[in-house]
Amino acid sequence: STSRSAVIIIGAGVSGISAAKVLAENGCADLLILEASDRIGGRIRKESFGGVSVELGAGWIAGVGGKASNPVWEIASKFGLRTCFSDYSNARNNIYDRSGKIFPSGIAADSYKKAVDSAIQRLRDLESNCAVDIPNGAELPLTPKTPIELAIDFILHDFEMAEVEPISTYVDFGEREFLVADERGYEYLLYKMAEDFLFTSEGKILDNRLKLNKVVRELQHSRNGITVKTEDGCVYEANYVILSASIGVLQSDLICFRPPLPRWKTEAIEKCDVMVYTKIFLKFPYKFWPCGPDKEFFIYAHERRGYYTFWQHMETAYPGSNILVVTITNGESKRVEAQSEAETLKEVMSVLRDMFGPEIPTATDILVPRWWNNRFQRGSYSNYPIISNNQVVNDIKAPVGRIFFTGEHTSERFNGYVHGGYLAGIDTSKALLDEMRKHERKNENTSFLL
Ligand code: FAD
């Protein structure tokens, strides 16, 4: 038998939860959330590792201390989430070469300035020539060559575009970033949000309007409603759907639309790049790296761009945890996801022995998240090509009949961030509520709003 809901929300990440909360708060309680995995949170996910809680997905609340207040920071403050200030700017004073020497600050600063100047120049060239759509990360005219140039170029482009281009998150909310270091995890905020409208007991959601392990495979849509089919053979009917699956999932064939999505929609979805960002966690029997807040971030300069370049020690967040984190992205992420943990451990140990000498101990545990190969994610976050116009994100966000889209990738100003997902969920639900009210006025005998 099939049940019919006013709204089905697909996905219980931050955007799906915030969308559902807005609907519930506006009198639309007849909703159903279908989540493919066995938990809520999506790309906000903690795991126990080496005796502490580490964040496999989002780790920072980015954009704090500015003229407007970041809503995620407000929620985190309200619920007392434990965070630590992160100062990445120190990283440039801690650049190691392959023989373990730290580059003198003068050389590092010069290389940084050169890299920023050339990145700005390249951006101007792109903008003055914006008829051609050159994707992010494409081969650019002034290509960095030495290991230190490659390392800085990688940090600039894959982490700190703010040095080159104003980023709305920093412009609106401020440039400070806080690392979440709370045993309950970043995801605790989502449970607290869900508690407002779903029935919970002892920290668990027991409401039957949230269904886990429900992988949506088909959306059959018409003027009259939508039929949603899940992998386990269940069928659900709804008047409207809010779809929060990531841009990577939309680019994949996980969900079949009948009839297919219009061309303007699929073309926009194809235009958005998917960024893969992987934090590899390593546990050691003792610390052998320099500590102190000005040493929290360090860089390894290798002739291969992005080869285990960006490092962080967890002593600030969790003193005595003896954990290091190395971040890789895109091509390197895909390469490492495809190999065994033993192979990855061998590579990272050889990098660490370059930096800190042959006698350091081997890590006793390693954790490699696989966001690219996760069929419910297919990547870490959206990345609009630098010179793409607003039309692309508007098309990605625009509803198709009764299907409304949400997720960080639909946020015009904050895509790629937790607050982007949070605000997108609110926006999408408001648009849907407007639509429902319009429909209600035209057709008075069907009321979905109380
Ligand atoms: P998701 O969290 O992906 O939620 C979508 C949900 O839909 C998922 O739970 C998924 O399982 C489900 N789903 C997918 N397909 C189906 C289907 N067919 N049927 C049913 N359910 C389905 N942001 C920051 O602000 N700061 C950071 O430091 C930061 N670092 C990051 C690091 C990493 C490694 C990653 C991966 C992300 C990071 N982000 C960061 C980005 C941030 O995590 C995301 O922008 C945000 O969590 C996305 O939320 P969402 O609701 O749009 O998507």
Automatic annotation (TrEMBL):
This is Polyamine oxidase 1. Gene3D superfamilies: 3.90.660.10, FAD/NAD(P)-binding domain. The keyword Flavoprotein applies. It comes from the Eukaryota. Pathway: Amine and polyamine degradation; spermine degradation. It comes from Hibiscus trionum. Belongs to the flavin monoamine oxidase family. It holds the Pfam family Amino_oxidase. GO terms for molecular function: flavin adenine dinucleotide binding; polyamine oxidase activity. The lineage of its organism: Eukaryota, Viridiplantae, Streptophyta, Embryophyta, Tracheophyta. Keywords: FAD, Flavoprotein, Oxidoreductase. FAD binds at S15, E35, A36, V216. Its cofactor is FAD. One of its GO terms (biological process) is polyamine catabolic process. Residues 14-105, 171-432 form the Amine oxidase domain.
